[in-house]
């Protein structure tokens, strides 16, 4: 049922983003064809999660604000595709454990490590949560840069606006496997991974 709900929602969203917004996806070759990995995307609009889900060739597990599950129809849908509820503004250990269990079970997980939408529409900085997950699960991180969604659905907008939406995936960040990081304290490893994600976003932005 989960796979069917995800596939159906992905098809509907693909139709919307492709025909209304001319969705363009670059760098799909960087996304592993199998196994667990983390997609770390910037976040400027409510459209970002479905856009990333459509752009990624693999089925993803997402993390979303827990209060969204209190909206009846939306909560039912999020549960049907196994979205992980997350309490914002605090260390939500149960959510982190669910994400780790998914990764260790071979499922890719998508996160937005800036910690929330960037209401200015500009790139923020990845927080250490992405480093915590990558370091604990020992999986590669695939940086993803989404653009155009801020113009299509800016903060407090009541309708969609016409805009060109693009998603670019960058090469995997596999710093967790290096000899250097294996001899580096965990706190520093997590910081270095987060910094690498931010640097990858800026590189993708520069080549947009």
Describe what this molecule looks like in 3D:
This protein has 208 residues and is of the alpha/beta class. It has a single domain, classed as Glycerol-3-phosphate (1)-acyltransferase. Helices cover 42% and strands 14% of the residues. It has eight helices and seven strands; from the N terminus they run αββαβαβαβαβαβαα. A seven-stranded mixed β-sheet has the order 1-7-6-2-5-3-4, with helices on both faces. Strand 3, helix 3 and strand 4 form a beta-alpha-beta unit. Helix 1 crosses helix 2 and helix 5 packs across helix 8. It is globular. The chain starts with a helix and ends with a helix. The model has no long low-confidence stretch (mean pLDDT 90).
Question: What is the percentage of strand-forming residues?
Answer: 5-15%
> Gyration radius, to the nearest Å?
16 Å
H-E order: HEEHEHEHEHEHEHH
CATH architecture annotation: 3-Layer(aba) Sandwich
The assigned structural class equals alpha/beta
Task: Give the end-to-end Cα distance, rounded to a whole number of Å.
Answer: 37 Å
Spans with pLDDT under 50 lasting ≥5 residues? none
Percentage of helical residues? 40-55%
User: What fold name stands as the CATH topology?
Assistant: Glycerol-3-phosphate (1)-acyltransferase
Q: Summarize the main sheet.
A: 7 strands, mixed
Write the layout of secondary structure elements.
Layout lengths: L1 H20 L2 E3 L11 E4 L6 H8 L5 E5 L6 H9 L3 E3 L6 H12 L4 E3 L17 H9 L3 E7 L1 H4 L13 E4 L9 H4 L3 H21 L2
Parallel strand pairs: 1-7, 2-5, 2-6, 3-4, 3-5
Antiparallel strand pairs: 6-7
Helix pairs in contact: 1-2, 5-8
